[in-house]
Design a protein that fits this description.
Layout lengths: L1 H9 L1 H37 L24 H8 L10
Length: 90
């Protein structure tokens, strides 16, 4: 324990830089975790806000937020023919 204290006190600038670097890494991780939580919440709200039990999209659309799926009116008519479907919106 004495050796550790001696090392820390022998070069205070290096000790402060090490502590600052560790704090910056922890802050960066917290920022990324907050960004991830916000992104997931936004995606959940987007899907839940559509008021539908099943959502169809055009082939190749993987991002429900940034990309729009353009389905033709013919597809809408086919979807409305499925038993149990009450409404279909493009």
């Amino acid at each position: 324990m004495i050796v550790i204290a001696r090392q820390l006190l022998s070069d205070p600038l290096r000790t402060l830089l090490t502590i600052a670097a560790m704090a910056a890494v922890v802050a960066f991780i917290l920022i990324l975790e907050g960004f991830n939580a916000g992104l997931l919440a936004q995606m959940r709200n987007t899907v839940m806000g559509r008021q539908g039990d099943l959502i169809f999209s055009q082939a190749g659309i993987f991002n429900m937020i940034a990309a729009r799926s353009i389905l033709s009116e013919y597809v809408r008519a086919d979807i409305e023919k499925v038993p149990g479907v009450t409404e279909a919106h493009p």
